[in-house]
Design a protein that fits this description.
With 291 residues, this protein is of the alpha+beta class. It folds into two domains: 132 residues, 2-Layer Sandwich (Beta-Lactamase); 113 residues, Jelly Rolls (Sandwich), CATH 2.60.120. Helices cover 30% and strands 32% of the residues. A hairpin with a 2-residue loop joins strand 3 and strand 4. Helix 2 packs across helix 5. The longest helix has 24 residues. It is elongated, with a radius of gyration of 29 Å.
Length: 291
């Protein structure tokens, strides 16, 4: 009798486990185009349209072709509203530019007109993130080529998004203990270099330096200890490229000279010559390089 009770219990447990495993296998992670991201895409397209003096309708949809944002610029024909939405939906659900369907029709494939949900007109562009189509943008109102140019400008904005806008987890937090910072200052070192947007240097200087120009990086300097005579602007004497986007020279003529000391902050924009002209005693300072 006991065996008869135990056996059904085991079967039930196995069935539950199988269902659980099967359910997990059927669930996948998916990037979703948020409303905030859709608004940024539409804004980028609008900026491009205004630069071209174009009067257009801009539609941004999710990966299922559902409308997220619709903008009709002033004095744009009302008829372009439905057309822009159709172009966007086509690019989203077929995962390709709507222009491809227009080209098929031009090349004699009339059957393309019968595809459900397809608007075979140029101006719809997929929005791609992490090699996946997460939505699309459609533009209508001007010439087909110009509509597509504006749509591409909007879609390209997705490449510039911070990862959190797309729902991807933020980057790992970096922590440096007091001892690590002290050790870094003792020799002068790069404390953090894990981003293409910024770096953090724990710098040490015992004497005057040479003139520097960073063509892409701004230097945000905080003096941790000591002082220096610091020159900004002016002209670099005998400038020579030393690395990509980096120029060095013997000294600076002209420019603005100031004394920077403990607790001071100075921001040197990208492309601005700067020079530690005189360092009377050892000096330590943070430099955040922002690109």
């Amino acid at each position: 009798m006991q065996d008869r009770i135990v056996f059904p219990t085991i079967v039930a447990t196995l069935c539950t486990a199988i269902v659980a495993v099967t359910s997990q296998a059927q669930v996948i992670d998916k990037k979703v185009l948020s409303l905030a991201a859709a608004k940024q895409i539409a804004a980028a397209a609008e900026a491009d349209a205004k630069a071209k003096n174009a009067r257009v309708v801009i539609a941004v949809v999710d990966d299922g072709g559902n409308l997220l944002v619709l903008q009709r610029l002033d004095d744009t024909q009302v008829a372009s509203v439905e057309v822009a939405m159709g172009k966007a939906r086509t690019a989203a659900i077929f995962r390709r530019p709507s222009r491809e369907f227009e080209e098929q029709v031009k090349n004699g494939r009339i059957a393309a007109l019968a595809l459900p949900g397809a608007t075979p007109l140029q101006g719809g562009i997929p929005i791609v993130f992490d090699n996946k189509v997460i939505g699309a943008i459609g533009v209508s109102g001007e010439s087909p080529a110009q509509d597509e140019e504006i749509a591409i400008a909007g879609a390209n904005a997705a490449k510039e998004f911070a990862v959190e806008v797309m729902g991807t987890p933020p980057a790992k937090v970096s922590y440096f203990s007091k001892q690590q910072v002290t050790d870094a200052f003792a020799k002068g070192a790069v404390l953090f270099n894990g981003s293409d947007k910024y770096m953090v240097h724990t710098s040490r200087r015992d004497q005057a330096g040479i003139a520097e120009v960073h063509t892409k990086d701004a230097d945000i300097i905080y003096v941790q200890d000591g002082s220096a005579t610091f020159v900004t602007g002016g002209t670099v004497v005998d400038p020579k490229p030393t690395d990509p986007n980096e120029i060095r020279g013997k000294e600076i003529t002209g420019g603005e000279t100031r004394t920077i000391t403990k607790g001071d902050v100075i921001i040197v924009p990208a492309g601005t010559p700067h020079w530690f002209k005189d360092v009377p005693a050892p000096m330590t300072y943070y430099v955040v390089k922002a690109r």
